[in-house]
Amino acid sequence: MKWLILLAKGLFLAVWGVLLSNFFISYPKGVNIVLFVILGFMILMHAMQAAIFITAIRQRVALTFGDKLSLVVFGVVGLLGIKYKYADQMSDTSS
């Protein structure tokens, strides 16, 4: 399962790379605009997901800066990685 998470993170990095390359590579005008819109939407959605997940998890697990950054960059895939990293602390139902 960990290799699937790593594969998904690699795909997310490729998507981020294409979207951010729009600042440095001159794409055709229509493609350029679409990539900027997708980049803005992706930043907005991942920031919202990270805010929700960090708020929900912080009572059980103290997340590091790297964990929070992983949530922003990888979204739900980052959450799955954090779930496996802190599985013992998150499964505690006594609190």
From TrEMBL:
The chain crosses the membrane at residues 30-57, 69-87. This is DUF1145 domain-containing protein. The keyword Secreted does not apply. It comes from the Bacteria. Keywords: Membrane, Transmembrane, Transmembrane helix. The keyword Transmembrane applies. The lineage of its organism: Bacteria, Pseudomonadati, Pseudomonadota, Gammaproteobacteria, Vibrionales. InterPro entries: DUF1145. Pfam families: DUF1145. It comes from Vibrio astriarenae.
